[in-house]
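hey m, so remember when u said the tokens were messed up on ur end? i reran from scratch. heres the input so u can diff it against urs
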Amino acid sequence: MNMTDILDKSNTAFQVIGTTLIGIPALAKILAFVSTKINPVIAVISTIISVVSMFFGNSKEEQEREKQNKLRGNIQNNAIPNIINKLEPTIENALKDISDTFFKEIEFSINQEKDELIKSLNMAKNEKEEYMDDIKIRTKEFEKAIEKLSDLKNKLINI
């Protein structure tokens, strides 16, 4: 609250007291006389203080802006860094936990895929071995069949 506000309120106070004391004529006349002399002085002083505060002080809006700027600066320079400093370990731990969990899930997924591929490879290998065994058996059967045909041919030629 600056001096202009105080002077404006005292001017209003004289008017309130004057209207209250109208019932007492002598006091009302004295107060009316005093208020007519004081009101212009109060108005002049109020104007002078306003002019002086414009040149040497800050207006209410500027004071409010300064308060807001100080508050903003305090938040930016003190509050936010303090909050960040307090939250930083928590955030780092949370990120580490998330990272660890993520990499464990990836490792599990890769191992699962690897196991499935190894199973598929082993199945293919077994199928190949069975196929090769089957080919060997058929080859032997074919060789036996050729041998029989050769024997038959020889018997036919000898007849």
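this time it looks ok to me. The helical segments are 3-20, 25-56, 60-158. if urs says something different then somethings off w ur setup not the seq
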